[in-house]
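Q&A FORM
Asked by: J.P.
Topic: structure of Aminotransferase

PROVIDED:
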Amino acid sequence: MGILSEKLSSVKPSQTKAMTERAASLRAEGKQVITLSQGEPDFQTPDRICQAAIEAIRAGHTKYTAVAGIQSLRKAVIAKFQRENSLNFTLDQVTVGCGAKQLLFNALLASLDEGDEVVFPTPCWVSYPEIVKLAGGVPAPVETRVENGFIMTPDDLRSAITDKTKWLMLNSPSNPTGAVYSREDLEDLAAVLRDYPDVWVLSDDIYEHLVYGDTEFCTMAEIAPDLASRTLTVNGVSKSYAMTGWRVGYAGGPAELIKAMNTVQGQSTSHTCSIAQHAAVAALNGDQSFIREFRDAFKKRRDQVVGLLNQIPGLSCKAPDGAFYVFAECQGLLGTRAPSGKVLATDMDFALYLMEEAGVAVVPGSGFLADGFIRISYASSEEELANACAAISNAVSRLSRTQGAA
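REPLIED BY: S.T.
REPLY: Here is the structure written out as tokens.
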């Protein structure tokens, strides 16, 4: 009998982490690699947030805290939800975890029985189907379409719901596509959900502040207050505040579910880092103007990358409305032959070719359950992005058509 569980045998490692680690390995060998595979802002955490952490250490806030988080942070979360999303929670309706990812895991582990289904649109974040499987559930991916802006339609949702459906997981702005669900989109989905009172909504809002132009961010519990009693709203400080390594996420929802999530967390990590919690208080309560500066910089980089990629034969993409990723279609390059003689049959082959020949790390779309794409993070400097796109262009120009390839 082997040591690994049958459950784990069906779970795949994160392709985003795998490509980033491969890039680090190549750099350790002395090779130049530009890493555009990781969803991490290149900005430094704002100084006032770092100072709050230093002050917390000096004040002796280095002991255990409540599993759900320190009260001052939960109050800051409550204030944030009310201020920005018109959502009203009490202390027992919010919780803090070691990043938004842990809160997603806690919620699913606390609520799924074997065979329960979780619906989510694809392309999706790489961890969604794997977390569902680890929690004992069954992933129920729903394919969306490029021509529809990668948005799940009401008909898509209705067709996916069965008598085993427990959750709808919705990530807006989306990783990897940058798609943002409009107010009308959410109202249409809410209309479907009203016909299925046993289906809960998990709203993953981690990229909330990273929307561009006239795009409006909305969240389900705000748009459909009558669904709030079966909606969990998850967010965190990682992306908007450049605090990925601090590992602080937060969630608001029905007290019964939050209590169950705290039970799961209490038997795993306990609370998140006490020092990071104090830094998060400063992040949520303090001046928010730097977020606009981050967003303006991301928009400029987005436009730069979209423009450069669309000049490369075989690649095409639209400007995303949110997050900091470009999801570029590479179907036109599949079936081509690399200078080594290898045929690039899949998006993984193409991604590995870019890694090894162009020195650029991207993530294949298959990792997001969408074959024929690559995800490129533009959370890097304009100079680095320009160099990366030039290297990609050069690498693509060295590909040749195989006999019979389109």
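FOLLOW-UP: Residues 116 and 181 are 25 Å apart (CA to CA).
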